[in-house]
Design brief:
The chain is 5% helix and 36% strand. By secondary structure, it is mainly beta. It binds zinc ion (2 copies).
Length: 144
């Protein structure tokens, strides 16, 4: 089948205790270099994609989720293995799915680097995507 509207993507944590599905209808995707995302992932940046929360469902192991924060603003990890899975954002209306935990390939690709003003000095961006100092809405790309 080729109907993109029906396509669902699966994802899971490292140990497999938590499984989720999300519609392949992400509204945006980016690589975030802010210090919060660097710390929460332990990585140079966080590749994530945003979608309405109603299009994201934890299908297994919800009782294993470890929620850091409040109902409408939190980071969610597997409580057994610690994998970072997603964040509830924008007053709970959206989730930001950490793309690294997806098992299936999404149609969308991260379209820009954001918060490059906070980028780790030891990491070099080597692609040609637009680079924003902070949020996209805060100003034009700094590499164009
Ligand atoms: Zn796990
Ligand atoms: Zn960030």
């Amino acid at each position: 089948m080729t109907d993109q509207n029906l396509r669902m993507l699966a994802g899971r944590c490292l140990c497999g205790a938590v499984h989720y599905v999300v519609a392949d209808e992400f509204r945006y995707a980016a690589n975030c270099h802010c210090t919060d995302c660097r710390r929460v992932t332990g990585a140079a940046f966080k590749p994530f994609a945003g979608i309405e929360r109603t299009k994201f469902t934890v299908t297994g192991g919800a009782d294993h989720l470890h929620i850091f924060g409040e109902e409408n603003a939190h980071d969610a990890r597997c409580g057994k293995c610690g994998s970072f899975l997603y964040s509830a954002v924008r007053d709970g209306a959206y989730v930001h799915v950490a793309l690294g935990a997806l098992a299936d390939e999404p149609t969308i690709r991260p379209g820009e680097h954001i918060f490059v003003g906070s980028k780790a000095p030891w990491f070099a961006i080597t692609d040609d995507l637009p680079q924003y100092w902070a949020h996209v809405a805060d100003g034009p790309p700094i590499n164009r």
